[in-house]
Amino acid sequence: MIPGAAAPKLLSRDLISRMQRGAVVVxxxxxxxxxxxxxxxxxxxxxxxxVDDVVHYCVANMPGGVARTATMALNNATLPYxxxxxxxxxxxLVADRHLxxxxxxxxxxxxxxxxxEALGYDYIPADQALMPGQLLSRVAS
Length: 141
Hints:
The protein has helices spanning 13-17, 67-87, 89-95, 97-101, 113-119, 126-129, 132-140, and strands at residues 24-26, 48-51, 54-57, 105-106, 109-110. With 141 residues, the chain is α+β, with helices and mostly antiparallel strands. The strands form two sheets. The chain has a three-stranded mixed sheet with strand order 1-3-2, with no helix packed on it.
């Protein structure tokens, strides 16, 4: 995934055409325009199409086909993060780079580079914004 951009085309039409007849390709980036030159979005009602004898499955929001299972998996994956944030949000952010990657603004400083660039603000990396010395100097001022 490339935030805000189309997915790169990883398989050319020429490569698809050289695949074995009946081969199946699944485009997991179709929500971002697809990663095969031959991709086009399909639906759960009509999930496949054939190009050069290769079956394409390009359903946007694939987890929607198994909504209950997908929801349970998402809850299991995210619950530990939610609990850590609820317990002590600053400690959770300091300890976990993945949570830092989701931080956009902290104490008035933009900590997400793309947001800073888009809005014309200064950018400070989340790990720097969250440094204890940074926190103390901002609280004192």
